[in-house]
Amino acid sequence: MEYTGLIRKYPVNRFLTDQERERQLRRGERLDVEPAYQLSTIRMNSTFVELVDKFFEWKGFLTAFAIVIAVMFVAGLSAMGVSSIIDGSIHEFWPHLIGMFLVLVVPILFVALWMFRKDACAYTHYPIRLNRKTRMVHVFRANGTVLSVPWDDVFFCIGSLPQYNWEIQGHVLNADGKTVRETFAFPQIAAGRSESELLKHYWEFVRRYMEDENLAPIHAHAQYVLPISDKRESFRMGWERRRYLVGSVPFPLQWLMLAIYVITYPGRWIAMRTSMLPKWPEEIEATCRVEAGDPFVRDARDNPVGLR
Q1: Whole-angstrom distance, CA of residue 230 vs CA of residue 249
Q2: How far is the C-alpha of 303 from the C-alpha of 294, rounded, in Å?
Q3: Pair type for strands 165-173 and 179-191
Q4: How far apart (Å, rounded) are the C-alpha atoms in residues 85 and 81?
Q5: Backbone phi, then psi, for 185, in 5-degree steps?
Q6: Could you report the per-residue pLDDT of 198-229, keeping only the tens digit for each?
Q7: How far apart, in whole angstroms, are the C-alpha atoms of residue 172 and residue 155?
Q8: What backbone torsions phi and psi does residue 156 show, to the nearest 5 degrees?
Q9: pLDDT (tens digit, 9 = 90+) per residue, 51-99?
Q10: CB of 162 within 8 A of CB of 10?
C-alpha cells in the first residue's frame, strides 16, 4: 500500500525531474497496448467518466491498525494494573503506571487517533472525474475541496513512490511549464520498475476515453462499475473486492493476504460507515449533465445480477 498524497504530501514547488520527463505519458499519442480499466470505474457516459481514488483499495487498513494499537496498549496496562492489585504492589506500581501513561501511552494513542482520522471519519473515497466534452479533470481532494484543471494543461507521467512503487501522476504546473504546483494520481500502483510498464494499459483506458472519437471500444472495456456513486459500499461488495485482490497475487501469498484481509476487514467496515460520501460542487455537476438517451451510460444497474 502507498499512502503518499494522504499521509505524506506530494512534494510541490519543485522542478520536474529528469525521470518524470523521461517517463512522460503524452496526450494524443496512442500506445500499442490493450486498455485496462482495473475495476476502477464508478460511472461512465458520453460526458464524463468517474474513477475511484488510489486509497480506496486500502480503506480500513489504517483504522484496523489504529484500533489494534490502542487495544493492545490499554489491555497491557490494564493487565499490569490488575496484577499489581492482586499481588498487593499497587502502591509501588501506581507511580510507574502514571509515568508510562504520560511518556509512552499518550503519544502512541495520539498516533493511533491520527491514523484513525486519516482513514475513518473522512470520505468514503476521493473520486476523479474526467469530462470528455469540456476536457476538464476534476479531482476530489482529501480535505473535501476540488481541483479542476484542463486536461491539456496536466503533465502526466509514470511517477515513482517509496519502496520501488510506481503510479500514474498528474502534475499541475506553474506558468513556466516546469514547476510543480500540485500533484494527483490515478488509482493503479505497480511494484517494481518492470511492472510499471503495466500502468500504460490503464493510461490508455483514460487517454482513449478523453481523446478517441469513437467511445464504443472503451465503453465495452468497463464491464463492471463500482456501486458507490451515491451510497457506501455494502459488506458483500467490500469483501468481494478483497477476494479479487487476493486472487491477483501468486498462490503462495494468497493465504497470507487472505489472513491479513480477514483481520483488517472490520477496520474497513468501520472506516466506511464513519466516513461521508463525496459530493461534487453544483457548478461541476452542471457541466456534467448526461444527455437523455445517451447510449454509453454505464452505472451499477448495468452490473451482473447479484453485483449491483
Answers
A1: 31
A2: 17
A3: antiparallel
A4: 6
A5: -140, 145
A6: 899 999 999 999 999 999 999 988 888 898 99
A7: 7
A8: -95, 140
A9: 999 999 889 889 998 888 888 777 776 766 666 666 665 566 566 666 6
A10: no
